[in-house]
Batch of 4 targets.
Target 1
Amino acid sequence: MSNVYFSGDGHIGHQSILKYMPERPYATELDTTAHDKWLIDLWQKTASKHDKIYYAGDLTFYKSEDARRLLEQLPGEKYLAVGNHDGTIKAHSNYFRKVAQIMEITIKPLMCETLSEELHIVLCHYPLLDWPGKQQGAVMLHGHCHGTMDDYNANSADLRFDIGIDGTLAKQAGGFIDIKTLYEAILKKTGGLTPQQYANENY
């Protein structure tokens, strides 16, 4: 059975990312080469070619040919919610199963033993205040904010989570967020209610 993972905001090839994200590996040395290798190794160690990876944008700053070579190294069935720094990656959409600004995803119980019903997700690079299916319990996953939205999301009634590599959820998961970890975070937010039940009571 394939696994499902979520991530975003890798900024591979971004020469200044370590200045902005001092908690990342190799930030002290500002060694972007080692940092990029760490991210690529993390992907390769996490996902197999049979797994699904939903990525919330800003994967790489590499120019076109380097971006193509990068994508060839990254296993799995890849889905991309386009970020504001994905200009060159869009030229290689053939390496992704789907590329979109906003993506609606359905995770079925057979993909995660802890699911009692289908989980509906809306994936976008940017955090949304409203999204398709919100009133019916759809969960909003985003990147872009590098963890700065975590407190806001936690204090909001909305079922919205930052899945970027710098967010709290990714740090707890050790990098990529698997579907079980995501669903546990959702149930913690809902107090054990299904997303549908939670939406009925809170929206």
Target 2
Amino acid sequence: MTALSPPTDAELTRRAQAGETAALGLLLARHQAPMRAVAMSLLGYGHDAEDAVQDAALTALRRIGDVRDPAAVGAWLRAIVRNNSRMRLRATRETTGLDGLDHLHPRDHEASHPERVVEQHAMRDWIWDAMEELPEQLRLVLMLRHFSGITSYQEIANACEVPVGTVRSRLSQARGKLAQVLLTTATEAHDDASRLTEDSRHEAEVTLEGARRGRQPSEILELWPTDTELVGILSAPGERSHPFPAMRRTREKGVTQHLRHVVASRDITIWEMDVTNPAGIPDPCPPTLAWLMFRQNRRVQRLRVVFPNCAGSPADG
């Protein structure tokens, strides 16, 4: 009996471009060693080289459809690693967005919107299922850096109330763990991540409409139990308060929020808002803000409201 020959790079690339996650997983596993060799040749042995390889894997997830010569996918992957490594070498200051990926900011009018790009290549559900396997702290920084408008290290540090160095460390850990999980889950069935996002978008719209009317419907009240805690800049240190009174005070001042973007996992949700202040209001609200919600069984346990464009210092711990 003749043994079956393994699929060629060209075959795997075409299957990956058709949406077969297992094929892309095989490609990444097959070329991981040469990709790492390129990174190490430029960056030496260490975390920077590993980060460059992991970033390249994430780029491949989103851009596999861009490969025009499927037989040369190995060279394409190595070129991504080389570009990432060179960017790290010449970087003299921090850049926003995922390192090496300049087109992943959530601008709904662009075809490069991260969720839209992932949908086009049928990899979205695979990525989000893998992200769900990460610890909460690692998943949060990854969601902010990759999929929200809160992308700079300082903004993420302010949102998480940790030092910038902690953000860098958590991102490095998150990328490494995500790459490992992706490779081990490529052949599994994945949940529909778009349904979770759409459900969260509907919840946000109903919540905002309830705030405008001064009364939240029962379906929203069930998701915000009495022990939900408002934490961060809008609450006093050591104080436990429910978010709804703060929403009511903001609304009474005439401040309105308009939903701009939603990022949702099973137990972390990010709602990004544009803010409109009435004319002449004292101490106006910043023009953008984000709700970071931490959930258990869909019910909100903690809400932190952050203002990405406002200067601030992260906590020392």
Target 3
Amino acid sequence: MRRVEWCSEDWPGETYEPTFFPPRVSRRKPAWLGRDGVESIYVGMLDEVYAALHADSRRLAMMGARAVIDVVIGRAVGDQGNFSKGLDALEKGDLIGKRDRKIIAAAIDAGSAAMHRGHQPTVDDLNVVIDIVERMIQAEILEAKAKELAATTPPRKRV
């Protein structure tokens, strides 16, 4: 739905900014978020990030995404003191590669820009960061699920 408000007493030719419901930045939660194996801290934090998205609070959603990345890093390698050291520890532990490090660093910097520099992210930029966050969490979940799968898969018979 699109809503445009105007008043007959406004200046002629004045432009009016439409409001969209739901906002254009909103997106659905991934299906895997509601399944077993997703840590409650992720569910709670992502619920708040998605609520910010639905309210078109892009800066707030970006800051929340940065906070989720901090939690993902902390769960994987502990508190390293700052993001750079956290990424170093992830890379050193073979949890991410150089390519992933650049991707995650871009998301962290976008969150920092929203938090510390007043940056208003575009809808596309915000969606990229949310994609990165979802990918990080899903990788953690898939690692655990793959271990379970390997344990229940019968071994190949040797001939």
Target 4
Amino acid sequence: MTIDDTTSRAPGQVPKPEPIDITATVERIRSLFGTGRTRPIAWRLEQIDGLERLVTEREQEIAEAIGADLGRNAFDSWFGEIVGLKGEIAETRRHLRRWMRPKRHHVPLMQRPGAAWVQYEPLGVVLVIGPWNYPVLLTLSPLLAAVSAGNAVVVKPSEMAPATSALLSRLLPEYLDPEAVKVVEGDGAVTQELLARGFDHAFFTGGTAIGRKIMAGAAPTLTPVTLELGGKSPVVVAADADLDVVARRLAWVKLMNSGQTCIAPDYVLVEDSVKDALVEKVVGAIADTNADQAPMKRIVNQRQYDRLVGYLQATKGKIAVGGAHDPQMFGIEPSVVVDPSPDEPLMREEIFGPILPIVGVDSVDAAIAHVNAGDKPLGLYVFSRSRATARRVVDAVPAGGAVVNHIALHFLVPSLPFGGVGASGMGTCHGEYGFRTFSHGKSVLTKTTRPDLRFVYPPYTETTKRLMRRIF
């Protein structure tokens, strides 16, 4: 879900956290879980209420921390971090009792009399590893799912957003059970040390490369993992699409958080007959969208800035707008690149920045073939006035999620599962899907002691064998 690294960052350093005894911390929280304190619904609802109070009462502090880490303004932090989380909280509070209720299952004739059901139990002590790009939303969202399922949780915020990490470390013990929810700050080495302790589940949000390391770190202890990753989310624009709407929605979502959004539109595939018109409208929409903001979009750190500048310098496409950059503030001007080469980094690697390639294709079918030639994306977006065309694209392209005639807003529907497929991730979160990710569905069958038919027990005669074949 993010491009990860730990090298030089923008000004506004936060002192490094004090080291802690990770082994002792994990042992204490595991002991606490063993008491059963986190299982009752009352405890779960208290944690849910605490999360809601945290993001409501401390919204200004959250915005200030995110501003220090990412240069985002307070309104954008509210929209990007708080809105979606509050929707998930409301969904969870409304339906938690139903999710927790055992689900009855049919018992076949040969098993009667008897009753069968699935009951959802907490996994135990789980690890939530947050990202830097949406450091509150994408850390607290899986935390919400974990506590709603009755787990004790170790939270490891991203060291790439140190002000937000420090804030979460200070605030979470004030609003949630401080013995059942522990915050551990630190870098990738701390994450690997945590994984080595063994958890009942690990939930990671970040880039695909680091996701592989998380999976490898979890393997020795057989810790199951959910990986929310990223990838090159395409936008397919058919010739019959409303180009004004396409341009506005592209510009809005692409520039959100300087393009550092896992489900941001990574590149556009548009039918050749309307390509030039779309480019012109996107250039205008970017100017409108960015009119009241700084001309440069701030990038999280030096390495990511250098990577994106390298994309612009290496492109063989035409830069229709933008291209300027400022090394002092790690700033990059919103940029549109038309028809870059398919083998250049801009078209092979996840961009994760304010650069939008627009590529002409012969047809919608050609766009489908282009997308399917690469890794399965986290998000798929298609614009068309034709329901049949839109459905054809959605059905033909494997992706974590899809949106027709808009971009990324499926994330804000809390009842929909959110997750990737293939290189874009495994497992899901949000609503009941998040609850189940952090729960074990235990199968239970109860039987009576009477009748107790003797013929089902050995030794078997030829008659009882024939009878059992008919019954079973």
